[in-house]
Amino acid sequence: MDDWIDYYDSTHTIYVSKKHRDVHFRVIAADIVGFIPSPGATVLDYSCGEALAAGDVAAACGQLILAEPAPGVRGRLTARFASNPKIAVRSLDDLTQLPDESVDLTVMISVAQYMTPAELDATFALMRRLVKPGGQFVVGDILRPEVGAAADVTALLKLAVQNGFLADALWGLARTALSDYWQLRQSIGLQRYGEGEMIAKLKAAGFSAARAPQNVGHNPARMTFIATREA
To answer: What is the C-alpha to C-alpha distance for residues 9 and 73, in angstroms, rounded to an integer?
Structure first.
């Protein structure tokens, strides 16, 4: 995962425009809000990225922990939300210091594809320790083995049409084909999981899990799983 962390900590072009970036985080935040169990809940967003709309999530819960591995991104998060008492920014290492069963909801969106299977298992074990009995762990934007990059392109173009950045999307797709992102994706690859495989991994970590009817975010070709911590 280190190479991907370095990439996202750099000046990258994963978003085709500022509007694309803003829409992406707004959609993700709205979906996370839908999982928050109560206004006083403690929510953990694991490897949250820039989390531009985290204020919307914080407004719907008691405390929001933004855990981010990239130092530069983490610094921007700290500065961006310094005035919001509901938001705490942490490194992934900091999470090992959190008390057991201290989180009502954890979310991990569009992260699993960048982790090795062993890294993913270790993260699931950590989430099992942190989530309260009966609490939920939402694992979203899982890439399926049978679905290729064309589905990602289609989803992006649909989002662009709906939100008025189609020209930027077309140019951005051409730019991405020659970018460091695509080269890294080709050299390292992205992890993909079938529905049964992901449910089995979550079960092995101590969760009961099922696939959600809809994926978190804008890409319907990917999967989201709702895992409930067993007692």
So the answer is: 6
Phi, psi of 81 (to 5 degrees): -115, 20
Cα dihedral 149, 154, 158, 163 sign: positive
77 SS3 class:
helix
DSSP one-letter string for 110-131: S-GGGS-HHHHHHHHHHHHHHE
Structural domains for the chain: 2-229 (3.40.50.150)
* pTM for the whole structure: 0.92
Tens digit of pLDDT for each residue in 190-211?
899 999 999 999 999 999 999 9
What are the pLDDT digits (tens) for 65-117?
999 999 999 999 999 999 999 999 999 999 999 999 999 999 999 999 999 99
Spell out the long-range contacts of 73-76 with Cβ–Cβ below 8 A and sequence spacing 24 or more.
Answer: 73/8, 73/9, 73/49, 76/50
Taking the C-alpha atoms of residue 69 and residue 77, their distance in angstroms, rounded to an integer, is 12
Count Cβ atoms below 10 Å from residue 231 Cβ, excluding itself: 5
